[in-house]
């Protein structure tokens, strides 16, 4: 990832909210404001892209493409009523999915859903804006193993896990960002947790057999 430097950025910029920095960049072409936005969020954005691609060179290219689009589209398409980082993440997500589709690695997991169990699951789901106990249980594993297993999930499931667990994005925003219904986003999270649990169980069984 090509990082920007943080030198020469006044401390006052670091105290500003994203919306204030965005306003400075849009109205005054304040490059320091934009550099502060990048310094603040680039690690999160790059990590998401890399988690989906698993290739540093390609992830770097998509990261640069994302911020090129951010700069060129901010005046035309960004609505200041929304969160800037959510808007940028949507651009990064779309660029990532475009690459995956071009590589013919796009997988539609919706056909693997258990249609009969969907309604029952949604009825039992707790408040969608706070991680459920099941999510915390399934994802409370060592970071290295977790990231390894997440990378092996189907693309749609990997997306929702990263957005939900690492960026604490509500399901409503995940659904809007990925262009699906909330129920579909919830279903993808459910099957991601099921698949992750299977992967951890298989990992433990393998470790036990080697003892």
Automatic annotation (TrEMBL):
Do you know which SUPFAM superfamilies this protein is assigned to?
Sigma2 domain of RNA polymerase sigma factors, Sigma3 and sigma4 domains of RNA polymerase sigma factors
Keywords (alphabetical) are: Sigma factor, Transcription, Transcription regulation
Enumerate the residue ranges of region (Disordered). 119-141
Q: Is Plastid there in the keyword field?
A: no
At the top level of its lineage, which domain of life is listed? Bacteria
Q: Which residues form the RNA polymerase sigma-70 region domain?
A: 37-105
Q: Name one GO molecular function term.
A: DNA binding
Q: Which GO terms of type biological process are on file?
A: DNA-templated transcription initiation
Q: Where is the RNA polymerase sigma factor 70 region 4 type domain?
A: 148-184
The record's family statement is:
Belongs to the sigma-70 factor family. ECF subfamily.
Instruction: Fetch the PANTHER family from UniProt.
Output: RNA POLYMERASE ECF-TYPE SIGMA FACTO (PTHR43133), RNA POLYMERASE SIGMA FACTOR (PTHR43133:SF51)
What is the official name of this protein in its record? RNA polymerase ECF family sigma subunit
List the source organism.
Answer: Rhodohalobacter mucosus
Q: What is the lineage of its organism?
A: Bacteria, Pseudomonadati, Balneolota, Balneolia, Balneolales
